[in-house]
Amino acid sequence: MTASMTIDDEEEPPLLVDVEGEGDPDSEEPPVVKVPITIVTGYLGAGKTTLLNYILKAQHGKKIAVILNEFGNSADIEKTLTVNTGGEQVQEWLEVGNGCICCSVKDQGVNAIESLMDKKGAFDYILLETTGLADPGNIAPLFWVDDGLGSTIYLDGIVTLIDAKNIIKSLDEPAQDTIPTEGHDEHEGHEGPLMTTAHLQISHADVIVLNKSDLVTQEELQAVRERVQAINGLAKIHVTQQGQVPNLEGFLLDLHAYENVESLDVAHKGHSHLDPSITTITIQVPVLEAEQLPALDEWLRSILWDSTLPSSDSTVANIQAESHEIHRLKARIPLSNGDVKIVQGVRDIFEIRDAPSGSSTSSEGKIVIIGKRLLGKSFKESLLSMIRR
Amino acid sequence: MTETPPAKRKCSGSDCDNDAGTLQCPTCLKLGMKESYFCSQDCFKKNWSTHKAAHKSQSSFLSNIFTPNVVSKPDPDTGTYNPFPTFPYTGALRPVYPLSERRVVPKLIPYPEYWKDGVPHSEMTFVGRTKIEILDEKKREGMRKVCRLAREVLDIAARAAVPGVTTDYIDEIVHKACVERDSYPSPLNYSNFPKSVCTSVNEVICHGIPDQRVLVDGDILNIDVTLYHGGFHGDLNETYYIGDKAKANPDAVRVVEAARESLDLAIKLVKPGGLFREYGNVIEKHAKSKKCSVIRTYCGHGINSMFHCSPSIPHYAKNKAVGAAKEGMCFTIEPMIALGTYRDKTWPDDWTSVTQDGKMTAQFEHTLLVTKDGVEVLTARLPDSPGGPIPMPSSEEKKPEVNGEATPQ
Q1: Kind of pairing, strands A80-85 and A64-67?
Q2: Is A10 on the interface with B (CB under 8 A)?
Q3: Distance between CA A33 and CA B20 in Å, rounded?
Q4: Residue A190 above 70 pLDDT?
Q5: What are phi and psi of A347, to 5 degrees?
Q6: Do β-strands A340-346 and A325-334 pair in parallel, antiparallel, or remain unpaired?
Q7: ipTM of the complex
Q8: What is the rounded distance in angstroms from the CA atom of residue B155 to the CA atom of residue B181?
Q9: Which A residues in the span 176-195 are in contact with B, Cβ-Cβ below 8 Å?
Q10: What is the pLDDT of residues A35-85, one digit of tens each?
Q11: Which residues bind a protein (chain B) (predicted)?
Q12: Is residue A29 predicted with pLDDT exceeding 90?
């Protein structure tokens, strides 16, 4: 419908598609090549555009799509997208079908990207650049598509850029427009440390890029690092200048942050009180029996869906304390039969699945939770009493 | 997973003697040109400048990108035509245009918000998409009323669905029956849907637009009715056998009854505390036991003063749907079950959803109210409702089918 859908006369050949597995309609999962999508967040001025331009220039031979503008916040999305092929950048329109949102499971943005790839051949990577004030916790669930939907894209992870010079100020003295309103419970007479969008962008991140490090002293940089790790002890941190990074794979791309859960090493446990709003906590879990998994599932439903910590004496305890808000959860749970389960969660959505075979086993399980008002609550006791019932 | 070894094919590249594997040009695939295998991306790239000419020679190429200006000539006898003559249809069914004029709802009947601009504004707010409303007793009574009326309208439509009538005629019946009940037919102009009911024939999964297609003996037809009355929507659908040929077709009976039974099984799980993610597990399990698949793209939905709101109810297994049923919630379950692939494709009318292999699909839907200790099927069948389960045609197999199981409640 849009004028820019011109015929690809002079264009590069599309990628060949592998048609193996065709011809058997009953086969459950015809092989689909899945393209990773990385969400890139950060305040205005943190260097998102510079970083993305750097990636587009540095990645010759890869077909990278950069989707700009806000996404997932409004229903009327007809957005442009920049596709980089062999050093040349092309603008494309994302075509969005009719507005029937609720009877389709998949997000319209996901559909639009899929249909563009249908027409133009698959990309190697998709980078989604959000607006400065986007809450990645609202966007990630849209792209964390159920396997059953057979989507051709998958959520690879969230990368947050931070301006090392200004971040502490952004966290401590927020401007009014950086205080999120949608989906957070701040207007219930709660008086406490303010949570800003900068907090949300850090707490949901799988990778944090500390940019503009050349504009601060070593001491200042260390303070920023500690503050960031106190909020999110799981994310990998990279220090850069002008958005330049040595290796993209495994650093910004190919994160697989929503797939396997390996070691779960949390940085700087001692500093967890550094940020008053958001923290990372770790819960050690014993090796479980397979029969205890339903109890683990029930516990996760309670803390993630209802923001309620089940307590052994289920009377007053959890009513008095103000309820928590969990942004990200990861766990690795070994079972006594030798299997290992992993848990991935973002906001209220979670999934328990089998760890890939051949991954390491250990004598103890671990759950890491990032969120608001987690301290001073007995998550571990709550879980243990649940699974020992 | 499939284990079929690929047949020996030659690479389509000029001067290339290699065997081709399973790599095909995606553009050719789209155009339905089957035999363009290449040995590698490199070889494909070398041959691109000549190969792409093949795409041009395929006249349907342009029409895949641009909506065609040319339409097929109207049939001189009936004046009907196919509005998308070059679209690669997946099965035998074609749209039969022209559509009839938009039907009018008398002004005295309260309209839903989208009646004019087609936009369901309140469904698009943050609350509409995330919060699940708990209905008080007055609202529950409103839902009971509209759902009962919707059942009456569906039954009237089903009695009219016989070989020889058009789906547009079914639309007319539904529209009139709604108006007689002081109700607005909810689909009309919802996101610009042009008609008052969805009629989905054979390979159409859902959202079929009533047109001049004549029902024939052997079709299966889903009629999806929603009414807006007293400020609430009531939504249900059933699939019906058209004529005796359909009832004698073992495949048709298998897919229709699998869909009917899978809905009944899912409804049994609906009670306070029951998890939304579980319904899909029992639906998919049952579909598989009948060698059928579950359509993934479309799901059940919350329903009350909004036509579609949260929660979303996926019908496939292993989904991550958040939440549990609570007393006072209203939502639909509406599994779509296919004989072949679960993958769907949408016609250029932007509505009609069909299976990619053109094989039959069937669907059943109820609007449900979660009660203190279970569920009330607000759109339950009445003693004289047409349709209902039938046994497998006897020639096919002697195995007794589990049936005669009335809809719960």
Answers
A1: antiparallel
A2: no
A3: 19
A4: no
A5: 55, -130
A6: antiparallel
A7: 0.80
A8: 14
A9: 182-183
A10: 999 999 998 888 888 888 887 777 666 788 887 654 444 443 445 566 665
A11: 207, 308
A12: no
